[in-house]
Each structure stands twice: as structure tokens, then as C-alpha cells.
Amino acid sequence: MGNTIISGYNNFMSEMFEPIKRLGQNFLKDRLAIKKMVKALGVQDGEIIVEIGPGLGAITREILEAYGNWDVEIKAVEIDLRFVDKLRSMFLDYMNIKIIESNIIDWLPTFDPVDKKFRVIGSLPYYITSPIIHNIIKMKSLPESCVLLIQKEVARKISSVAPDSSYMSSFVQSFFDVEYLMTVDKKEFAPSPEVDAGIIKLVKKQKITDVDANKYEHFLHKAYSNPRKMLNKVFYQDELNKADLNGSYRAQNYNAEDWLNAFRILS
Fold first, then answer.
1. Superfamily assignment of 213-266 in CATH?
2. What are the structural domain ranges in the chain?
3. Is 26 annotated as a binding residue?
4. Is 78 annotated as a binding residue?
5. Is residue 239 annotated as involved in ligand binding?
6. Mean pLDDT of the 164-183 span
7. What CATH number matches the domain at 2-204, 3.40.50.2300, 3.40.50.720, 3.40.50.150, 1.20.950.20?
8. 2-32: per-residue pLDDT in tens?
9. Burial classification of residue 204, based on how many CB atoms lie within 10 Å of its CB (0-12 exposed, 13-18 middle, 19 or more buried)
10. What is the structure's pLDDT at 186?
């Protein structure tokens, strides 16, 4: 499959399909990384798979090889019309896949799986990683799991824990268990980005039904607004007492569970 990916890239380039830098188009060539991503997704019969930015179709092809004969729906969302047309032609014989031309940021809030469970996979453009993840968390229902290829530094930040937690780790880990799966060298992309990538797996936590994600986001922004400040410079003392937070600590000294508990008490 590695040669197939490279061949697909060369074919696209030969048709003057130059990658668009502003869209963060860097195509993964590492077959083992792709296989690991698809396997880690943990798909079950009757579910929906949402792929973000299929591009050349390398991950899409692996999904179809693994689940093409299963009772699953695949929705591949691509913003670049050049790839949309090619992908529709490539996967014309598969009845369970739909190639959707849309900006994923606009599409996610409109997606309603009704009563079906769904999972999300994709190689995310580095420049919109945060908005995409925020939109996933704010969806009508959470995916069972996500496997995302993102900038390594961001992947490490999302998977960090106290005493080195971050706004992103506390926000994401409040809704998902996070696992850092592997690092992918920048040389495994065409064209190569400036930095290495990391693959993370998010698994939905089962008991988050009473949290307004928008309000919680603002609460965490306040807590992490100045990482160098102690919490007694951010919150009133009575708030710290109610939430059982140590005012001499900084935000990164607490994990997602601590912040979720504090939000519930103070909101």
C-alpha cells in the first residue's frame, strides 16, 4: 500500500494537483501508521465512520479494506473539490461510502447520527487542529472514539497530565480518555511539513451529560489564562475554598477531573 500511496500522490501531481499550502495539505505515506490508525479506531457493526480530509484516499482505502464488507457507513469530508471528484471516481463501486464536499468546521455542527454510534478519524491540517477538536466536543453527541494525526507538539500537549497539564489537555480529557499512540516522522509525508506528527486516540467518557462545553471552555480559559500566575491571582478565595483548589498552585498542577469538579461546584 505504501507504493500505492506514493503512486497516488504522483498521479495527482501529474494532473497539476499541487498541494495547497494554506489548506495544510501534507499526505501521509507511512502504511504502518495508517493501518495502526484504522485498527485503533475500534469500529463495530452498525456504526458510522467520519473521515476528516481524505485527500488522496490512503486512509479511506485502508478503512474500506478493513470494514468495506461490514454494516458501516463512511462519510469522508473533503474541502478540496479536486480531490472530491477523484475520490468519488476511485470509490464508485462502494455503496457504503459518501464523499462530502465541505469544510469540516462547518460540517461537524450539522452532522446528526440520529441513534447510531459514530467514530472520527483523520489527518488534521495543523492550523485548524484546535477548532476541529473543539467542534467535535461540542457536537450533539460525542463520537465513541477518535484517532487523529496532528502536530506532535499539540498531541503531546493534549495527552499531558499534572503537573504539566494544559488548557487543551484539561478540556479534551474532561470528555475523552486520551492515549498518545505514536510519533510519525515528517519525512513520512508528501510534501514534508516542518515538524513531526503524533497520533492520538480519544475514547469517549461515559458519564459526561451535565456539562455545557461552551461555558466550560470559558472557565478553563480563565484558569489557564496566565500559566505563571498562582490560582489565588485568578480566582477569589471563597471560590478556591468551595472548589477545594490550592491558591498557591498553578493551573497546570491540576488535571481534567479536578477542573471538571471545580466547574460543577462554581457554575
1. rRNA adenine dimethylase, C-terminal domain (1.10.8.100)
2. 2-204, 213-266
3. yes
4. yes
5. no
6. 97
7. 3.40.50.150
8. 455 445 545 554 454 565 555 556 889 999 9
9. middle
10. 94
